[in-house]
Design goal:
The chain is of the alpha/beta class and about 400 residues long. It folds into two domains: about 30-155 and about 295-365, Response regulator (Rossmann fold, 3-Layer(aba) Sandwich); about 155-285 and about 365-400, Rossmann fold, CATH 3.40.50.2300. Helices cover about 40% and strands about 20% of the residues. It contains 13 helices and 15 strands. The strands form three sheets. A seven-stranded mixed beta sheet has the order 7-6-8-9-10-14-15, sandwiched between helices. A five-stranded parallel beta sheet has the order 2-1-3-4-5, sandwiched between helices. A three-stranded antiparallel beta sheet has the order 11-12-13. α2 packs parallel to α11, α3 packs parallel to α4 and α11 (about 315-330) packs across α12 (about 335-340). The termini are far apart.
């Protein structure tokens, strides 16, 4: 053997060993995810439930994710404020956190996307990825789409597509009132409801429309009086948290007997507000429900036993499933490489096969219509110990609820 060539061969072998080690450097690595959502104010119960959900499933996926990483949640209270959220983002970045999740309030999501875009442009090598668990304004994956933003929930238009497809076949729906929160999501619920009903059920009248401040109204009696005065037999609302629970409470107290078509009936506080009065007339469109069964059913039971609370933010599972697969595929925890691996990624999740659409980073997934009814042997899970549940009545596969995108993605 030529002695002169030996150092070169040793160097090459060492480099290969190092590159192999680097490729699997994420095994056992801790991946911190900053959770930026409300832990105080009227929406605190939702935030507190979701922090527990993220921590519970971090433990589950730490034991099973194919990348071998350890997920750790860093919760930061944003008080439902975009300004507070930007302070939280800066604090997280200063702590070296490279992944951020948020979902309560699309106004907050818009502010975070803008700030993360600017940060990533100015700080190559320190990029941050935004994993959106519940902010559903369609603009976030259309006019405001970003390479650094991935949405795990179905957007407002996708849910309305499924909801109006279901409503189309309900002949007793004749007069609809639109009541929504006065911010991006609420505006979009009203917009898409009008557009889609006009096409699918042109005979249906929109007899009233109103917007109210987000997370500020404590008495919805005046709004319910307007609904009753309009003669509406049906209400469509994108309200969530206290804004839905208090609306339902006021409707029940006033004796309103019309139907409600909602996005967030299963969320903290609303099941208790519904009680028996909502049975058979309150519907929800969502990517999960309380009676999925299988592994999801086991997780829900375990969560309920551990926290005396109900698990409903299924997008948490999507986040961990997709991140684990993407990190294994990229052989890295670097957000730039993970973002590239997430694009077009398909995984089997609790609600079927889901796909992260490359064009706009909007997850494509099946959606369900469920109705509030008495819990029974077939659908036994009872949220907030009400004795009632959300029972599935219709499943829409991904291609039914999918809506087109106008995103012009700028890739680094």
């Amino acid at each position: 053997m030529n002695i002169a060539k030996r150092p070169l061969k040793i160097a090459v072998a060492a480099a290969l060993l190092l590159s192999g080690a680097a490729a699997f450097a994420q095994k056992g690595e801790t991946v911190k995810i900053a959770w930026i959502d409300p832990l105080s104010g009227l929406m605190a119960p939702v935030g507190q439930n979701q922090v527990k959900s993220f921590q519970f499933f971090a433990e589950k996926f730490n034991a099973t994710n194919p990348a071998g990483v350890k997920f750790e949640i860093v919760p930061i209270d944003n008080k439902l404020s975009p300004a507070e959220s930007l302070n939280a983002l800066k604090s997280a970045i200063d702590q070296g956190v490279r992944y951020v999740t948020q979902g309560n309030g699309s106004g907050v999501a818009v502010a975070l996307i803008d700030a993360i875009n600017k940060h990533n442009e100015r700080n190559p090598g320190k990029e941050v990825l935004f994993l959106n668990h519940s902010a559903v304004d369609p603009d976030l994956t259309n006019s405001k789409c970003s390479y650094w933003h991935f949405r795990m929930d179905a957007d407002t238009s996708m849910k309305m597509e499924a909801l109006t497809t279901f409503m189309k076949d309900q002949p007793d729906i004749k007069k609809v009132f639109l009541l929504n929160q006065n911010y991006a999501h609420g505006h979009q619920v009203a917009k898409y409801a009008k557009e889609m009903l006009a096409v699918k059920r042109p005979d249906v009248q929109i007899v009233g429309e109103d917007l109210h401040p987000l997370a500020q109204v404590r008495d919805f009696a005046p709004y319910v009086a307007k609904i009753k005065a309009s003669g509406a037999d049906t209400v469509i609302t994108g309200n969530w948290g206290s804004d839905l629970a208090l609306l339902i409470k006021a409707a029940n107290e006033s004796g309103y007997t019309g139907k409600f078509f909602t996005y967030y009936t299963g969320v903290s506080g609303t099941p208790t507000a519904l009680g028996k009065n909502g049975a058979g007339r309150v519907y929800q469109v969502s990517y999960n429900h309380y009676n999925m069964g299988g592994q999801m059913g086991k997780w829900q039971e375990e969560f309920q036993t551990k926290f005396k609370d109900d698990f409903y933010t299924g997008s948490v599972i999507h986040i961990y499933s997709l991140l684990g697969e993407a990190m294994a595929k990229a052989k890295s925890t670097d957000p730039v490489k993970v973002a590239a691996a997430l694009e077009g990624l398909k995984v089997k999740s609790f609600n079927g096969e889901v796909e992260m659409r490359k064009a706009d980073h909007q997850l494509q997934q099946p959606l369900f219509i469920s109705v509030w009814q008495k819990a029974d042997a077939k659908y036994p899970y009872s949220p907030e110990n009400t004795g009632y549940t959300l029972a599935p009545v219709k499943t829409y596969e991904s291609y039914v609820s999918s809506t087109p995108t106008s995103c012009q993605m700028k890739r680094p």
